[in-house]
Amino acid sequence: MIGIHKESLPSDARPKAVGLISGGLDSILAAKVIKDLGVEVHGLYFSMPWGCGNKEKALAMAGNLGIQLEVIELGESFLEVVKKPKHGYGSALNPCVDCKIHMLIRARQHMENIGAAFVFTGEVLGQRPMSQLKQSLAIIEKESGLTGRLLRPLTAQVLEPTISEKEGLVDRSKLLSISGRSRKEQISLAEKYGIKDYLQPGGGCLLTDKNFARRMKDAFKHGHRDLNDVTSLKWGRHFRISENFKVILGRDEPENNILRQNAHAEDYIIEPVNKLGPTAVLKGKNPDPEVLRIAGGLVREFSKKHKTSNAEVDYWQVNHKDAVSRIKAASLTEEQIDGMRI
User: Fold this and answer.
1) From start to end of 121-260, where are the E strands?
2) Which long-range contacts (CB under 8 A, 24 or more apart) does 228-237 make?
């Protein structure tokens, strides 16, 4: 662990800090507070398929403050955190404590690599029920390896002083004492600093959505081949045909396009012959004709004028897009469709 004392710095040097910036108000306020204390801020944005922030907003807001922001992709390895969180889930499939620990471990590594003195976040004591209680904040600090080196500037004065405060790298008297769920103080500070167009709280992580969590549990149970399989959980209507096969139907043309783009090479694309309806992505290896007919039946039932013009559907494997075949779609009842819905 790197320890930087104020007296060891050259007279013209500024201490460095690594800050987590999500595009939300709290994280950008924290960055503003730390930067105004004369600290050289290095921002990190953690990008994940189900999102807990907004990369465009984070980049724009960091740019407005003159802060360099590095984007770090959380990929396949992070799925293990979601599958088996040490500290459990929140209201759905959200492992908030483990997620924060994972990101802060990466932030600590970056801190050590660039010779920074500490890491900071926009966390506020008592604002979130799972990850921002006093006990949770302590667990996150310890298990990320940042004991004494994790500063939460918005709520610092109601927490114990960190090493950087004790060493005089930051002036504790200029840190804040916000706590609780109200956001009045943050909004007032945003107005004072002229900070606008920030990500609104509460809508971020899809893992807190029970419908999305159900899809994720299904993917964990039946297996996924790559990160795109998990990313595709965000879009469309999802149906489980059998243990080995599932179908995703686009709701509109933009979703049709994005599902095609994210399909695995072994997936099958299924569309109505007249193109008046959804694109389906059939996931699973070597489907037999009956599976294809059922998948086609889902396309048919959610297509325009499906009773007459979409009795047949076209299908092809993604990595053999020139080999298009045609098959008669199955006729499905509402009960059958509801039974397959994820």
Assistant:
1) 150-151, 237-242, 245-249
2) 228/262, 228/263, 228/264, 229/264, 229/283, 230/49, 230/79, 231/49, 231/262, 232/259, 232/262, 232/263, 232/281, 233/49, 233/50, 234/49, 234/50, 234/206, 235/259, 236/278, 236/281, 237/278, 237/302, 237/341
Residues in the chain: 342
- Return the percent helix, strand and coil in the chain, to nearest 5: 40, 15, 40
Rounded CA separation 242/240 (Å): 6
Q: What percent of the chain clears pLDDT 70, i.e. is strictly above it?
A: 94
φ, ψ (nearest 5 deg) of residue 73: -80, 130
Among residues 327, 229, 336, the alpha carbon closest in space to that of 285 is found at 229
Q: Tell me: the pLDDT tens digits for 27-39?
A: 999 999 999 999 9
At residue 305 the predicted structure's pLDDT band, cuts being 50, 70 and 90, is: low
pLDDT in tens, 59-99: 999 999 999 999 999 888 888 899 999 999 998 999 999 99
8 Å CB contact between 131 and 162: no
Chain-centroid distance of CA 296 in Å reads: 32
| Domains of the chain by residue range | 6-205, 209-340
pTM, two decimal places = 0.87
Tokens for 330, please give them.
């199955």
Return the H-helix or E-strand segment holding 227: helix 227-231
Residue 310 has pLDDT above 70, yes or no: no
Non-local (6+) Cβ contacts of 198 within 8 A are 23, 24, 25, 28, 57, 61, 190
State pLDDT tens for residues 315-336.
999 999 999 999 999 999 999 9
CATH topology of domain 6-205: Rossmann fold (3.40.50)
122: three-class secondary structure by DSSP? coil
- The Cα–Cα gap between 271 and 326 comes to 10
